[in-house]
Amino acid sequence: MNEPLGISLRVNGDAVTRSVEPRLTLADFLRHELSLTGTHIGCEHGVCGACTVLLDGRSVRSCLMLAVQADGCAVTTVEGLTPAEGLSPLQQAFADNHGLQCGYCTPGILCTLSEYLDINPNPSEGEIREALSGNLCRCTGYQGIVDAALAYVRSAQ
Amino acid sequence: MKPAAFDYHRPNSVAEALDLLARLDDAKVIAGGQSLMAMMNYRYIAPENLIDINRIAALAEITEEGGNLRIGAMVRQRDAQDSPLLRARAPLMIEALDLIGHLQTRNRGTIGGSLAHLDPAAELPAVFSAHDAVLHLASANGAREVPIGGWSQGFMAPDLEPDELLTAIAFSPWPAGHGHAFLELARRHGDFALAGAAALITLDRQGRIDRAAIALTGVDMGPVRLDAAEAMLAGQVPGAELIAAAAQCADRVAGIEDVHASRDYRRRIAVVYTRRALELASQRAASGAGR
User: What are the residue ranges of helices labelled H in A54-124?
Assistant: First the structure.
């Protein structure tokens, strides 16, 4: 039971091969096997969105996926969204607009927005709030988060 | 928490999956995992065997054959939303999909998973109920079809045997120009609905209701068809009084209650949302918006 299985995937562009227990979630795999601790774990049942990463370009909750299910896929985490030097324009917009306080929810929100703003590059405030409905912030910083997303959208026009 | 240990199986074909289901004890099928993984993390369930059907391409197709739409069980909710075929032929389903969870859960969650999990507040069972859909099941012993009306056997208990796999759901789409509406009340976008209503309407040349279908979610264990309301509407010109009277049928549903809402409140919401869904669907039918 639970014998380790070999998996090969790309994480932030790098090829990764590991042997993992089937019950290991993708979130724990990223944090504990690859030391990519930017992906945060909040609720572990798919409600808070803190563990959101991109799987083949689509935002997914990495606590609701097994690492073995990502075999052959391309995963992007917040580390992969961050340039070698400085911040990405979206990250800078968060810094400029008080879009984070404790920062726990921020990686998940950045991953969610990076997919969503590709689908809808010019969203209204209401659409941004709906797009972020699956990401909880407990510092009650939604206003700053929405401001940051809107500022980024304006600057990208 | 973390899931308990299990053996992981990843079949590449339906036949392989059915063989595993026949051979293995205490096996659970994982599709999108958006409910199952949460239950495993909580250790509400701890199956000995997990059968992952995510790599079975044959289960992820949407096809139209002989006037019937057939949606594979592994079709992801996001891909269904983006399907030009479903957008053209099943706008009710598209409207409901937008209310299911969030972008991140729709990117993984599947059509079949929603039906097999059968949460009382799920949107898709009501959509398929309004469409008189048929579920296609398979096991190593053969295939079986179950009409959506007989699918729910109790609280989160579909008519699905432990060795059976839900492979697809099929229905005959309504004619071009039909009116549709899916409306629900949820505290926040993406939350489980307290109650919701799906409505389909076609009008004849005189503007009378040719055919109506109404299905509710969130008020009982499974989707509820409002046959009595449909009978009241048939052959009539849709007007405010008629629609209000038909919507009142939602008040006679048995009803469920939980921490989120009482039985009476859910029924009250069901009446209001049935009325609004019928109004919107008949407006759309009149303007031929579904055309």
Answer: 78-81, 89-96, 106-119
Q: Provide the domain count of chain B.
A: 3
Bridge pairing between strands B209-217 and B142-147: unpaired
Q: The tokens of B232 are what?
A: 């009241």
- Chain B residues whose CB is inside 8 A of the A61 CB are 34, 104-105, 108
Distance, in angstroms, between B104 CA and closest chain A CA? 5
Residue B166 to residue B113: CA distance in whole angstroms: 9
What residue ranges do the domains of chain A occupy?
5-81, 89-156
CA–CA separation, B54 and B230 (whole Å): 39
Nearest CA to B71 among B35, B99, B110?
B110
CATH of the domain at B237: 3.30.390.50
Residues B20 and B5: their CA atoms lie apart, in Å, by 18
In a domain, B2, yes or no: no
**SS3 of B210-243:** EEEEEEEECCCCCCEECHHHHHHHCCCCCCHHHH
CATH of residue B38's domain is 3.30.43.10
User: Residue A76: its chain B contacts at CB < 8 A?
Assistant: none
* Structural domain containing residue B18: 7-52
ipTM above 0.95, yes or no: yes
Instruction: Tell me which residue in B5, B33, B37 faces A1 most closely, judged by beta carbons.
Output: B5
The total of other beta-carbon atoms located within 10 Å of residue B88's CB is 14
Is the residue at B65 inside a domain?
yes
Q: Do A60 and B1 touch (CB under 8 A)?
A: no
Q: What pLDDT was estimated at residue B190? A: 86
Torsion angle of alpha carbons A136, A138, A143, A149, nearest 10°?
-40
Task: Give the number of other Cβ atoms within 10 Å of residue B190's Cβ.
Answer: 18
Q: Is residue B1 part of a domain?
A: no
Per-residue pLDDT of chain B (291 residues; tens, 9 = 90+): 899 999 999 999 999 999 999 999 999 999 999 999 999 999 999 999 999 999 999 999 999 999 999 999 999 999 999 999 999 999 999 999 999 999 999 999 999 999 999 999 999 999 999 999 999 999 999 999 999 999 999 999 999 999 999 999 999 999 999 999 999 999 888 888 999 999 999 999 999 999 999 999 999 999 999 999 999 999 999 999 999 999 999 999 888 888 889 999 999 999 999 999 999 999 999 997 544
- Given this structure, which CATH class describes domain A5-81? alpha beta
Overall fold of domain A89-156? DNA polymerase; domain 1 (1.10.150)
